[in-house]
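Researcher: I'm preparing a figure for a lab meeting and need a structural model of a single chain. I don't have an experimental structure, so a prediction will have to do for now. The sequence is pasted below. Please return the structure as tokens so I can convert it later.
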Amino acid sequence: MSMVVHLQAFSGTELEARAEIQAMGWYPYASDVAAEHNEPHFHPFDSIVFIVDGVLRFHDVVTSEFHVCPPGTRIDDIGENVHREDHEGYRAIVAFAEDPAVLFASATKQETSE
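Model: Understood. Here is the structure written out token by token.
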């Protein structure tokens, strides 16, 4: 499976991203992502990413496609999609089907116990 990238999917504002997430019945999470140049990985949860500032660049390992995602881009990351990020940072409003406080509680607990 691969991520689905929708360029110019919304106006690029946080307000519109939050409204779309609310309409979906999912939970919004504001994320300021620092510059990353990482190895192939996947996220063990489903999310929909709304880029509101900066540019996310990532390589989809399965399709070998390189995506450039400016503000207004929506990325559907449903399933375990192997990708590699290469960007200088961006801000996104991320939609999660589960409350992020619950979703990330075990990861936070694991990090603090090590």
